[in-house]
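During the second half of the funding period, the structural biology subgroup turned its attention to how the target accommodates small molecules. The most pressing case was LZJTPJHO, which had performed well in the primary screen but for which no bound structure existed. We therefore specified the complex as follows and requested a full 3D prediction, including the ligand pose.
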Amino acid sequence: MTDQNAAGTDPRLGLTVTHRRYVSYAEAHYAGHLVAGGYVLGLFGDVATEVCIRTDGDEGLLASYAEVRFLAPVRAGDVLEVSATVVRVGNRSRDLDLAARVVARGEPERGESAAGVVEPATVVVTARATVVVPPGS
Ligand SMILES: C[C@H](N)CC(=O)SCCNC(=O)CCNC(=O)[C@H](O)C(C)(C)COP(=O)(O)OP(=O)(O)OC[C@H]1O[C@@H](n2cnc3c(N)ncnc32)[C@H](O)[C@@H]1OP(=O)(O)O
């Protein structure tokens, strides 16, 4: 019988949590209804929090971000899908791969409220984060 733990693989590795969020026009900060980069980091914090709840029964704390890449603009009217995957489990630290994708977007050239599904989704931001949970979580 193959036992993941006996084989030394932590069952938390590979866990993925996904959130979806409509980017309201109140979030637009720059010309062309562009949203500030920090907005997506906030969404990363939320999805990382659910990861910590699921892996350790605690909201956890973000200790660091690495390799943050802003690959394409996020605009008001976008629907974002934000995901976090556990890629390393330490003693109290866990590393997460994070990605934000635009899955739907406004199409103002068709009309004020026109919008459509973006397929395939456009990857807009990626990052690696380390979260830390309390001892004994
Ligand atoms: C996901 C959240 N719910 C959402 C948030 O955004 S929380 C808000 C933003 N974050 C904070 O306000 C955290 C502020 N920082 C702290 O409170 C502390 O620095 C800390 C709790 C993150 C770590 O402090 P401490 O518990 O004293 O750390 P250590 O005992 O030294 O180490 C424990 C493990 O954590 C690893 N580690 C510590 N600092 C970092 C870092 N900056 N980058 C990466 N990893 C870090 C350390 O290596 C230990 O790992 P292991 O236990 O060996 O796996």
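Two results from this model are relevant to the next phase. The mean pLDDT is 94. The two ends are 29 Å apart (CA to CA).
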